[in-house]
Amino acid sequence: MDIKKELLELLDDPLLDGARPFVKTPTADDRVMQKVAEVKEWIEKNGREPQKDGNLKEKLMYASLTTLKEKGLWT
Question: Is there a contact between 39 and 64 (Cβ–Cβ < 8 Å)?
Fold first, then answer.
Protein backbone atom coordinates (compact mmCIF):
# COMPACT_ATOMS: atom_id res chain seq x y z
CA MET A 1 0.00 0.00 0.00
CA ASP A 2 1.15 3.54 -0.69
CA ILE A 3 2.51 5.09 2.53
CA LYS A 4 0.84 8.47 1.89
CA LYS A 5 -2.55 6.85 1.37
CA GLU A 6 -2.12 4.67 4.45
CA LEU A 7 -1.18 7.68 6.58
CA LEU A 8 -4.19 9.67 5.37
CA GLU A 9 -6.47 6.73 6.18
CA LEU A 10 -5.02 6.51 9.67
CA LEU A 11 -5.51 10.22 10.26
CA ASP A 12 -9.13 10.01 9.10
CA ASP A 13 -9.89 7.38 11.76
CA PRO A 14 -12.86 8.55 13.91
CA LEU A 15 -11.04 7.34 17.01
CA LEU A 16 -8.59 10.19 16.51
CA ASP A 17 -11.28 12.89 16.46
CA GLY A 18 -10.42 15.46 19.09
CA ALA A 19 -6.93 14.09 19.60
CA ARG A 20 -4.33 16.78 20.08
CA PRO A 21 -0.55 16.61 19.90
CA PHE A 22 1.37 16.70 23.15
CA VAL A 23 2.33 20.19 24.24
CA LYS A 24 5.91 20.52 25.34
CA THR A 25 6.11 21.84 28.89
CA PRO A 26 8.57 24.71 29.10
CA THR A 27 11.74 23.94 31.05
CA ALA A 28 13.33 26.26 33.59
CA ASP A 29 15.85 27.27 30.91
CA ASP A 30 13.00 28.04 28.50
CA ARG A 31 11.38 30.31 31.09
CA VAL A 32 14.67 32.11 31.80
CA MET A 33 15.25 32.68 28.08
CA GLN A 34 11.69 34.00 27.74
CA LYS A 35 12.25 36.44 30.61
CA VAL A 36 15.58 37.61 29.13
CA ALA A 37 13.84 38.23 25.81
CA GLU A 38 11.02 40.18 27.50
CA VAL A 39 13.45 42.40 29.41
CA LYS A 40 15.58 43.03 26.30
CA GLU A 41 12.47 43.94 24.33
CA TRP A 42 11.37 46.34 27.08
CA ILE A 43 14.81 48.00 27.12
CA GLU A 44 14.87 48.35 23.32
CA LYS A 45 11.39 49.83 23.31
CA ASN A 46 12.05 52.30 26.16
CA GLY A 47 15.73 53.06 25.57
CA ARG A 48 16.70 52.38 29.18
CA GLU A 49 16.64 49.73 31.90
CA PRO A 50 13.43 49.45 33.91
CA GLN A 51 13.27 51.32 37.22
CA LYS A 52 11.62 50.18 40.45
CA ASP A 53 9.45 53.29 40.69
CA GLY A 54 7.79 52.99 37.24
CA ASN A 55 4.36 51.66 36.32
CA LEU A 56 3.38 48.06 37.06
CA LYS A 57 4.89 46.63 33.86
CA GLU A 58 8.13 48.49 34.49
CA LYS A 59 8.25 47.27 38.09
CA LEU A 60 7.80 43.69 36.89
CA MET A 61 10.58 44.13 34.34
CA TYR A 62 12.79 45.69 37.04
CA ALA A 63 12.19 42.71 39.33
CA SER A 64 12.98 40.28 36.53
CA LEU A 65 16.14 42.17 35.56
CA THR A 66 17.28 42.33 39.19
CA THR A 67 16.81 38.57 39.56
CA LEU A 68 18.65 37.88 36.32
CA LYS A 69 21.56 40.06 37.46
CA GLU A 70 21.68 38.39 40.90
CA LYS A 71 21.86 34.96 39.28
CA GLY A 72 24.57 36.10 36.87
CA LEU A 73 22.34 35.62 33.85
CA TRP A 74 22.52 39.25 32.69
CA THR A 75 25.62 41.06 31.59
Answer: yes
- The tens digit of pLDDT for each residue in 14-71 reads 887 777 778 889 999 999 999 999 999 999 999 999 999 999 999 999 999 999 999 9
Both ends of the chain: CA-CA distance in Å? 58
Whole-prediction pTM: 0.67
Question: What count of residues does the chain have?
Answer: 75
C-alpha to C-alpha distance for 41 and 29, rounded to whole angstroms: 18
Sort 65 into a burial class: Cβ within 10 Å, 0-12 / 13-18 / 19+: buried
- How wide is the angle at C-alpha 26 spanned by C-alphas 21 and 32, nearest 5°? 155
